[in-house]
Write a structure and sequence with these properties.
disordered N terminus; 8 helices; single chain; two-stranded antiparallel sheet; 10 strands; alpha/beta
C-alpha cells in the first residue's frame, strides 16, 4: 500500500454523461471563464506567448490586451487611433491542453474538488486561446489516453472541448503522464503552447518525456494542490483510500508523527516537481482548491508577458 498517496473519498459522485447536466455545466464554465477574461485587470492573453521577432511584418490597429511597448506612436498620431507593430514571430500559435482526469483528482477538502478546479482552469485557457484566434485542442488522460481533440478554431470547438471535459467517464483510474506527454509530442506537428494541468500525483519520472516536449514546444505546468495534503488535520483514526488502486487502510491522524510524515511526503513531491520543471525549462504554476485561481492565473500571465517583452 502506498500510504503517503492515500486520499479521502470524493464528497460527491463523478460527473455523469447525462446530456442536459453536461450542457448546464458547460454553460456554467463558459460564463465563469468569460467573466474572468472580461476582467480588465487580467491583462492581455494575445500578447503573452508571442515574441518580439526581429523582422517587422506590419502595423495593425490596437486590440485590447496588446502590450503598450508595441504601439507605433507615429502611426497612432497620424491615424488618431492606436496602432501596434506586428512582427514575424507573432505567427499562429496552436494551444493544447493536457488534462489529468485520473482518480486522484476526486479529492478536495475545502471549496472544491481538484477536478472542479481543473475543469475551470482548462475552460478559461480554452476561451483565452479562442479569443486570441489560436487553434485549441485537448488531450484527456488517466493511465491511458481517454480522449484527444486536435487543435482547431471556433466557438463550437471550444464548446466541444468543455463538453468532453465535463462528461468524460475515464476508463482508467491511475496516472500515466509519461504516455500523455509522449502522445502530445507525437501528435503536435507545429510549435505549440502546451498546458499540462494535473495534480502530478503518481506521475513518475517525467524528465525524458517532458524534455522531449519542451524541446519543441512552449510548455506550462499547472499543478493542482489541496491544503490537506500538506496541512494534515488531527482528526484521529480515519479510513483512507488510494483512489487510483482502491487500496484502503486505517491511519491515525491524531499521531503527530504520522501527520508530519504525510506532509513531508507531499512537500518532497512538490520540490521534486519544481526541480524537474526548472531542468526542463517549463514554467510551473501552482493552484489550490481553497484559493480562487483567477488572481494567480492573472498574475502568472502578466509575469510571463513582462518576461517575454524584455
Amino acid at each position: 500500500m502506498r500510504l503517503p498517496d492515500f486520499l479521502w473519498r470524493p464528497r460527491r459522485p463523478a460527473p455523469t454523461a447525462d446530456s442536459a447536466a453536461a450542457s448546464r455545466e458547460v454553460r456554467r464554465l463558459e460564463l465563469k471563464s468569460r467573466r474572468f477574461m472580461d476582467n480588465p485587470a487580467l491583462g492581455p492573453y494575445p500578447s503573452l506567448f508571442r515574441g518580439h521577432g526581429i523582422e517587422f511584418s506590419e502595423v495593425r490597429e490596437y486590440q485590447p490586451g496588446d502590450p503598450f511597448q508595441a504601439i507605433d506612436w507615429k502611426v497612432t498620431a497620424r491615424m488618431r487611433r492606436p496602432y501596434v507593430k506586428r512582427f514575424v514571430e507573432e505567427r499562429e500559435l496552436a494551444v493544447l491542453l493536457i488534462v489529468d482526469v485520473s482518480a486522484s483528482n476526486e479529492f478536495g477538502t475545502r471549496k472544491a474538488l481538484k477536478r472542479d478546479l481543473v475543469a475551470e482552469v482548462a475552460s478559461t485557457l480554452a476561451l483565452a486561446a479562442m479569443r486570441a484566434g489560436d487553434p485549441v485542442g485537448m488531450l484527456l488522460f488517466s493511465d491511458r489516453i481517454e480522449q484527444y481533440v486536435r487543435p482547431a478554431r471556433g466557438r463550437n470547438r471550444n464548446l466541444r472541448l468543455l463538453h468532453e471535459l465535463v462528461s468524460v467517464q475515464p476508463e482508467g483510474k491511475g496516472t500515466d503522464l509519461d504516455l500523455a506527454l509522449a502522445t502530445a509530442a507525437r501528435m503536435l506537428t507545429v510549435r505549440s503552447l502546451v498546458f499540462v494541468i494535473s495534480d502530478f500525483v503518481g506521475a513518475g519520472d517525467l524528465a525524458r518525456p517532458l524534455l522531449g516536449l519542451s524541446g519543441r514546444h512552449d510548455v506550462v505546468a499547472l499543478a493542482v494542490d489541496d491544503p490537506a495534503e500538506t496541512t494534515i488535520p488531527a482528526s484521529g483514526w480515519v479510513e483512507v483510500m488510494d483512489p487510483e488502486t482502491g487500496d484502503r487502510a486505517i491511519v491515525d491522524l491524531g499521531d503527530a508523527t504520522v501527520r508530519q510524515r504525510l506532509a513531508e511526503h507531499s512537500t518532497t513531491g512538490a520540490r521534486a516537481l519544481e526541480r524537474l520543471c526548472a531542468h526542463c525549462h517549463v514554467d510551473l504554476m501552482r493552484l489550490r482548491t481553497d484559493t480562487p485561481y483567477e488572481s494567480r492565473l492573472s498574475a502568472f500571465f502578466a509575469a510571463r508577458g513582462r518576461r517575454r517583452l524584455r
